[in-house]
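HOLO CASE FILE
Compound: PRP
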Amino acid sequence: MNKPIRIALTKGRLEKDTVALLEKLGFNCTAVHEKGRKLILPVPDANMEVVLAKANDVITYVEHGVCDMGVVGKDTIMEMKGKFFELVDLGFGKCRFALATKKGYDFYRGYGVKTIATKYPNVARSFFEKKGMDTEIIKIEGSVELAPLLNLADGIVDIVETGTTLKENGLEVIEDVAPVSARLIVNTVSLKMRHAEIERLITLIEENV
Ligand code: PRP
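Model generated. Tokens follow.
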């Protein structure tokens, strides 16, 4: 038998939905449910192995071919780019990138360079470049909503899911940047070398999302 197909899953928010999808396909994910602190889990009968990783690392492992496939948010793909095929929109993990400011703040007023705080500097930069707008981008690691509240930034480019975090902190969306959802990505060499297996899996996934 071939070595197992390795699929890297983004730990956390996307993990549950991805495991639910694999189970819908008829795969036995008991080992993933009972993982404890284990990071590589077998999916018996499917000749598959699940690798649990952080979003950015899912892309790194797939790009380098140590994982054949990965499930990762479009947000991470837009920020990291990289060489791999993005083959299926899985339809879960839906949210959006948006530009938000303090409620009532007139962001586009005046000609001064605006400061933007974000966990996604490449996404923010390309959004404002397309507008031909000069901005200063400051990278923040988490809870970006703090930056305008502390007057570090005029606005933020961040993920908005329910909108609760913005609302509870007196911020509001002033513009949508891009829709986000989970995507299935595939290593370029794996797709050639293990074409039949991967294609079978992708067809199965497409029938079930
Ligand atoms: C994300 C995002 C927002 C929040 C949005 O942060 O950066 O802060 O979720 O969700 P909502 O619209 O449903 O309120 P995450 O929880 O990943 O934490 P972090 O900011 O510490 O990275």
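CASE NOTES: The mean pLDDT is 97. The two ends are 28 Å apart (CA to CA).
CLOSED: yes
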